[in-house]
Amino acid sequence: MRVTFTPIHKRDKGISGTIAVLQDVTEQERLEQSRREFVANVSHELRTPLTTIKSYAEALNDGALDERELGQRFVGVIRNETERMIRLVTDLLHLSRLDSNQATLRRQQTNVPEMLEEVADRFSFQMRKKAIRAGVRVEDGITSIWLDRDQIDQVLDNLVSNAIKYTLDGGRIEIMARKTDANNIAISVRDTGIGIPKKDLSRIFDRFYRVDKARSRNMGGTGLGLSIAREIVKAHGGTIALDSELNEGTTVTVMLPIQAGGESA
Ligand code: ADP
Fold first, then answer.
1. Ligand 1, atom nearest to 212 Cα
2. Of 16, 57, 69, 175, whose CB is crowded by the most CB atoms within 10 A?
3. Given this model, what pLDDT does residue 264 score?
């Protein structure tokens, strides 16, 4: 709460009263604080790969280039770090477009069972590598809904790729769709993975929030996947929720209106 006092002057009579203005600044301060945190996070996330690239480039310059195998390894590290930065900047640009509502939705009638089968197909190689079994289950009667296929594909890709990243070898991933009422469908991605501790659940959709930063980085994550997913779903007039049990698994559920809602193209 901010309080400002302004004296009231009357001609020849000096101060005859005071106006007190009470202003609620908590929301403003909260926004300012999260903006500062965001800038600090972006700087840190960019600085880390840049520092690595610099030191590996220096090592190459100082002689590693003369040892073929070592040189190749160092160039590999530089390439990986560059790719990480490209992913990060691409995600940031996408988020910024979603924030400023410039991301107009290009909705099209989309067959839900087909869309879910296709996302499972896209990841079948990665799942096979980890011996993860996958299943797609769509309730009878669900056919088409009106959505931006590219954007929702990106949401599903994020959720399935997280499910794979955070599930140990031999686990199971289920992609499901059901009608919750006459107007909405729920699409869920459930895994039997490592789960998320209760204390982290409330912040999991925050930008750059990760349960284990090092693990997420090693897996190539930017910490922005769930935030982007939430913005895309919001633009569709839907909601996204995450439910998790540590060491048992995680379910992320996206609720979408069957008829176009929210901001449409
Ligand atoms: P990241 O790029 O780190 O995966 P996300 O925004 O997609 O970023 O996810 C944020 C964090 O939420 C992850 O770092 C991870 O700690 C946690 N998380 C997301 N999905 C899962 C999941 N299916 N199982 C366990 N943890 C998850």
1. 16
2. 175
3. 39
Residue 207, ligand 1, Cβ within 6 A = no
- Look up the ipTM and state it: 0.98
Judge contact between 177 and 111, C-beta under 8 A.
Answer: no
**Burial (CB count within 10 angstroms: exposed 0-12, middle 13-18, buried 19+), residue 42:** middle
Distance 210 CA to ligand 1 centre (A): 6
Ligand 1 atom nearest residue 210's Cα: 14
What's the whole-number mean pLDDT along residues 240-263?
Answer: 88
Distance CA(19)–CA(6), nearest Å, equals: 5
CB neighbourhood size of 154 (10 A): 16
Q: Please count the CA atoms within 13 angstroms of the CA of 53 that sit on its side-chain side.
A: 13
Ligand 1 site, residue 176, Cβ cutoff 6 A: no
Calculate how far, in angstroms, residue 161's C-alpha sits from the geometric centre of ligand 1: 9
Question: pTM for this one?
Answer: 0.85
Residue 47 to residues 40, 51, 96, 165, 248, Cα–Cα distance (Å): 10, 6, 20, 24, 35
Q: Looking at ligand 1, which atom is closest to the CA of residue 205? A: 6
Among 91, 77, 103, 95, residue whose Cα is nearest residue 161? 91
